[in-house]
Design a protein that fits this description.
Immunoglobulin-like; 6-stranded mixed beta sheet
Length: about 700
């Protein structure tokens, strides 16, 4: 009987594997066969269709429909195009269940870890896989346009949408975004770069006027947009804010000047929802599509009759929409059958992202991973029995949510005791305390850098009554940890891990996974240390909730980017301000050594290439992943420059005692700065220092070169 049972199990596993393989074959075949139409052919096709359209049809297609659609033109066999949020998975709109829109209603979608966690992996290949999985679920939902990735910069820790973005550094964001775009669009789904541009606060976001100089725009805020464009992104969404006095969605300088002329974008430009006010400006700005429906363009026929705009303006807008849809072949695009979607694979990608993106910030006396002598493990915190997530359009609820408490019990069994609000005696009696605290961030408002009072009290009670407290931070950006950082035995930054992030978290706590995440932003000691401190108008305070009426009544206010290019770690180093945790920082359960830095400059004069190589060795006793980071310092420059700028990184997988050689190529642009006079990158010859290390603060090897 025993051998037949074994045979049954083997056959079951075999058939399951074959079933999974067969499920994915149709999607794989479709993806292999998909090739975007060339710009030239799509442009010609758009011209021919545009010539058949009436004025009414042209106007109809440049005005959004039913909140999330590009209108169909049935007479010309042009289908409606559905778009949905967001970067971290497919946001399922519950209201569609009650409407005749069942074909766009996925039964489930994977809740991936938030993008700032993805950035903390420093793994651009994983960014591709993550986005590819999101794109496959878009295809299953009949979604033509994904309203992501969000690529704005982490300028201030209080921004409510930091969890949707990829951190503070332009180079890191650019690398992650470029691969994300490729991953989404490999499925035939349009990726939308948002929000263009300089939308770095959600405090009355429609009334914030970002005042930024041109050099700062190009060096800090535009690189991820440029990377996405170069990767083939077919759509860009303009932002809510004003830039230097004009709303971005109707600014000719922003759209025609920067986006199309300077960055070379040739795809579809759409507004953010309810973000434009002047139809005449909109039509002349380079904008193509007003979402969610006509507000600024509500009187477009009158504007045409009065000659304030021309039919050529509408033709341009309509043609851009048609051309973009034709490039991605949306007019004859087929849905992926829902039962062919490999949700198992998608969840595996989500799990790997969480494994690589959780950051170990502190680990005194190597309390982690927890050893067998820790018999009494007290667990407390608001996110032990519920999944924390970022709110707003980016929210994805998931379908197989793993609670932290359940995962801990699976791993540690009866050693776990959960008390929501433990008293001092219970805290003191534990061998170790796992205290989970954090924030639930959202678009629409900013939140305080300081924790809510109840969260601050809980972590204070734990660290003050038990020296073996491990603090687990669940948040979408940096929080104030200054009062208890030194008292905590260990700190894990878990971000928003999506539906399966808690499995990765417990693997790290137990030592089954070695943490390898690195901070994609700086965590300051106090918010007043931040370059963006003081952005809220004098006399005003932060709010929570969707304050539509208050926002409408609020006057436009200036957000002055007076720090210029000195944002993030650049700022803290320039001002000699010690952060709590530096950009790029993250601990491991093993240790790494760097050596043998060599720099080849012989190809620079002819090809503009500098070859940097060095060795990394795992000198600990367990396998680990190390993200090596390369920074460039300009020794003497005609313009102010940071003490260092990230210009290369890679993730190295090493067994104990193993050493690997790492090679990174730098180009002329990596040594250049933006020159507003020539509207181009400028290389200034001279001395540069190549710095390689494990964070922006921990430089292990460096060498000066002359170029």
């Amino acid at each position: 009987m025993h051998k037949y049972m074994i045979l049954f199990i083997v056959l079951s596993i075999t058939f399951y594997i074959l079933y999974i393989q067969m499920k994915g074959q149709s999607i794989k075949k479709e993806k292999e066969q998909f090739q975007p139409l060339s710009y030239e052919l799509a442009d010609t096709k758009a011209d021919s269709v545009l010539a058949l359209m009436t004025q009414v049809e042209k106007v109809a297609i440049v005005e959004g429909d039913r909140s999330f659609f590009i209108r169909p033109i049935p007479r010309l066999n042009l289908p409606e195009v559905y778009m949905t949020d967001a970067t971290q998975g497919v946001h399922i709109r519950e209201k569609f269940k009650d409407l005749d829109l069942a074909m766009y209603q996925l039964e489930k979608s994977t809740a991936f870890p938030c993008p700032i966690l993805l950035a903390a992996t420093w793994n651009s290949e994983l960014s591709y896989k993550y986005a590819e999985a999101v794109g496959e679920e878009c295809r299953a939902g009949g979604i033509g346009i994904l309203l992501g990735p969000g690529v704005n910069s982490y300028r201030i820790s209080q921004c409510g949408r930091n969890f949707e973005y990829f951190g503070e550094d332009p180079f890191l964001r650019a690398r992650m975004v470029g691969e994300y775009v490729k991953g989404v669009q490999s499925t035939g789904t349009i990726a939308t770069l948002k929000h263009f541009v300089a939308n770095n606060t959600d405090y009355y976001r429609r009334k914030s006027n970002s005042i930024i100089d041109e050099r700062t725009l190009h060096e800090i805020y535009l690189p991820p947009f440029k990377a996405g464009i170069d990767a083939g992104a077919q759509a860009v969404m303009t932002s809510y804010n004003l830039l230097n006095g004009e709303w971005c969605g109707q600014s000719e300088y922003v759209i025609n000047g920067i986006l199309k002329t300077q960055l070379g974008f040739r795809g579809l430009v759409m507004t953010d929802w309810w973000s434009v006010y002047d139809g005449e400006k909109l039509a002349k700005s380079g904008q193509d599509l007003e979402m969610p429906y006509a507000v600024a363009l509500k009187d477009v026929h009158q504007l045409l009759d009065e000659g304030k705009i021309k039919i050529e303006d509408i033709n341009r807008m309509a043609k851009s929409i048609l051309r973009t849809c034709f490039i991605m072949k949306l007019e004859d695009r087929k849905k992926y059958p829902s039962d062919n979607i490999l949700y198992e694979n998608h969840e595996s990608v989500a799990l790997q992202a969480a494994r690589e993106g959780i950051v170990l910030l502190k680990n005194e006396k190597n309390i982690l991973p927890l050893q067998e002598d820790k018999k009494k493990i007290l667990v407390t915190g608001d996110y032990v029995e519920k999944i924390a997530m970022g709110r707003g359009s980016a929210e994805v609820k998931g379908y197989n949510n793993r609670l932290m408490l359940d995962e801990l019990k699976k791993e540690f069994g009866s050693r776990i005791t959960y008390v929501k609000d433990p008293n001092f005696d219970q805290i003191k009696a534990a061998d170790v305390v796992l205290c989970n605290i954090g924030t639930e961030d959202s678009e629409g408002w900013d939140r305080s850098f300081a924790l809510p009072e109840d969260q601050e009290k809980k972590v204070g009670d734990c660290v003050n009554n038990n020296p073996n407290t491990v603090v687990i931070v669940t948040s979408g950006s940096g929080i104030r940890m200054t009062d208890w950082n030194n008292k905590a035995r260990a700190i894990l930054y878990a971000w928003y891990g999506g539906q399966i992030g808690n499995k990765a978290l417990v693997e790290i706590i137990a030592g089954k996974t070695n943490p390898s995440g690195k901070l994609p932003m700086t965590i300051e000691k106090e918010f007043k240390d931040s370059p963006g401190y003081g952005y809220i108008p004098e006399g005003e305070t932060l709010y929570q909730g969707w304050n539509g009426k208050e926002e409408k009544a609020h006057p436009v206010y200036d957000v002055r980017y007076s720090e210029g290019i000195f944002v993030g770690y650049r700022w803290y180093e320039k001002k000699n301000i010690e952060p709590l945790y530096p950009f790029g920082f993250g601990l491991s359960y093993t240790s790494f050594e760097y050596s043998d830095l060599t720099i080849g400059t012989n190809m620079f004069q002819e090809q503009g290439i500098v070859k940097v190589s060095f060795a990394v060795k795992n000198v600990g006793n367990r396998r680990g992943l190390e993200t090596v980071q390369l920074y460039v310092q300009d020794v003497e420059s005609a313009v102010p420059r940071p003490l260092k700028e990230l210009k290369g990184f890679t993730k190295v997988d090493l067994e104990p005692g193993q050493s690997k050689n790492v090679a990174i190529e730098l180009t002329t642009k990596d040594f250049s700065f933006w020159d507003p006079e020539t509207k181009d990158w400028f290389f200034e010859k001279g001395a540069f220092i190549i710095q390689v290390g494990s964070s922006s603060k921990e430089i292990k090897v460096q060498k000066q070169i002359e170029l």
